Amino acid sequence: MGKAVIKAADAAGLELVPVSFGTEEESGQKVEVCGKEIQVHGLSDRESVLASVFDKYPNMIVVDYTVPAAVNGNAELYSKVGVPFVMGTTGGDRVRLHETIENSNVYAVISPQMGKQVVAFLAAMEIMAEQFPGAFSGYSLQVLESHQAGKLDTSGTAKAVISCFQKLGVSFDMDQIQMIRDPKQQLEMVGVPEEHLPGHAFHMYHLTSPDQTVSFEFQHNVCGRSIYAEGTVDAVLFLSKKVQLKADKRIYNMIDVLREGNMR
C-alpha cells in the first residue's frame, strides 16, 4: 500500500517526503519508488526523526498503512509530534484511537476503507439503515470476505456493512464472518484471479427471508490497490485544506472527503 500511495501521489504532483518507518530490522534500508529513494527508519528513533522531518516539512501529512497492532501507538506518536495524518490501517482499539486525537490538536482522516466508490456504497447503506430501520427483520445473513494472506484482521468494511444490516433488523454476530486467507480457497471457492492473490478485497453478503422464498445478494470485489491509493491522495488533499483553514472539526472520515465534492 505504501508503494501504491507513493505512485498515486507522484502522479497527482504531490511532493514526497523521502522518509518511512518500519521495523527495527528494516532500519537503515533504502527503497526506491518512482525514481525517489526513501530512507526507512526503525522504531527506536521514530519520534525524533518524525519531529525533525515535520520541522523541515511543516505542511507534511503522514499516511499510515501498517498493521492493527501499530494503530494506537502510531496515532499517539503523530498526536505527540503534532503532525496531521491519514490512516487507512484497520484494527486496533478504535475508541482509544479517536480519544487520542480528540485529546490532541492534530487533524486526521481515519477510515477502514479508502476506496471512494466503496465508501459511497457504505454511505448508501447507512442512509438505508437510518431511513428504513427493521426493513430486513427476520432475514438471515451470510458474509464472506477474502483478502491477501498478509491481512491479519477481519475486514473493517465488512463490519461496517454488517452494522447497517443489523440496524435494518438482521441478527448477526461479527464472529460469524467467513474470513478467507488461504490462496487455494481464494482461487477455487471465491474466484480471485491468480495474479491478484497478493492484493485483493472481495466481499459477499447474502440475505435470505425467514421462509426461504426471497434472497438478496450484495457484492463488491477489488483487485489490486489503486482504488485505495487514489482515495488516500484525495484524503491527503482534503486534510491539507482543513489544516490550512484551521477548521474547527479535526477528525474526519472518507464520507467527509466524498461530501466535499472536490475529488479528482
UniProtKB/TrEMBL annotation:
Occurrences of domain Dihydrodipicolinate reductase N-terminal (ranges): 1-114
Residues forming coiled coils: none
Organism phylogeny: Eukaryota, Viridiplantae, Streptophyta, Embryophyta, Tracheophyta
Enzyme class: oxidoreductase
Enzyme Commission designation: 1.17.1.8
Localization: Plastid, Chloroplast
Key words of the record: Amino-acid biosynthesis, Chloroplast, Diaminopimelate biosynthesis, Lysine biosynthesis, NAD, NADP, Oxidoreductase, Plastid, Transit peptide
Identification of the protein by name: 4-hydroxy-tetrahydrodipicolinate reductase
Enzymatic reactions: (S)-2,3,4,5-tetrahydrodipicolinate + NADP(+) + H2O = (2S,4S)-4-hydroxy-2,3,4,5-tetrahydrodipicolinate + NADPH + H(+); (S)-2,3,4,5-tetrahydrodipicolinate + NAD(+) + H2O = (2S,4S)-4-hydroxy-2,3,4,5-tetrahydrodipicolinate + NADH + H(+)
Domain Dihydrodipicolinate reductase C-terminal: 118-258
GO cellular component, one term: chloroplast stroma
Function: Catalyzes the conversion of 4-hydroxy-tetrahydrodipicolinate (HTPA) to tetrahydrodipicolinate.
Chief place where the protein resides: plastid
InterPro entries named in the record: DapB_C (IPR022663), DapB_N (IPR000846), DHDPR_bac (IPR023940), Dihydrodipicolinate_Rdtase_pln (IPR011859), NAD(P)-bd_dom_sf (IPR036291)
Family statement drawn from the similarity comment of this UniProt entry: Belongs to the DapB family.
Pfam family name, one: DapB_N
Origin species: Citrus sinensis (Sweet orange)
